[in-house]
Design a protein that fits this description.
Elements lengths: L1 H11 L17 H13 L10 H11 L7 H30 L3 H31 L4 H25 L4
Length: 167
Amino acid sequence: MRKAGLLFWLAAGLAAPAAMAGDASGFDPAAISQCLAEASSQGAQVDCTEAGMAACLDYARDRYRGDDPDFPQWNCLDAAHQAWEAELTATYRRLLEQEAAAGAGPQDMLRRAEHSWIAFRDDLCNWTGEAAAARGENGELATLRCRRDEAARHRALLDGRLQDGGG
């Protein structure tokens, strides 16, 4: 059913309107950047995990005509997860560069910690999806939501380390 939904989007040639700078999913990654910038300028801790989701869901629900009622949610969670992964990767690279000043040891430890976190995230989100499916819920959505949320949380953690000067 997902393939049918994706084919719909592709066949329809849908692109995000000018107000939505994101991709054809309707998700605008700038919503995350804007939320993070506003939180930073206010010096406040704000949860930006849901940034852009409401607009994406409105967009997707308005345009999707397939038979999978979960497709708009799946579509937006997938796009949001990708956007958070990009934020996380950029933050990780900045922290890795910052650690370069301390030498190879801290960089290697950061790399190992990141690899361990990825394994943890995968296990956590796979468990989350399996548990949801066992309860009769949509395991794919639970897994995607977990991946998005964990990428956002880990990005915040690494950003805090970056702001504190590392380790």
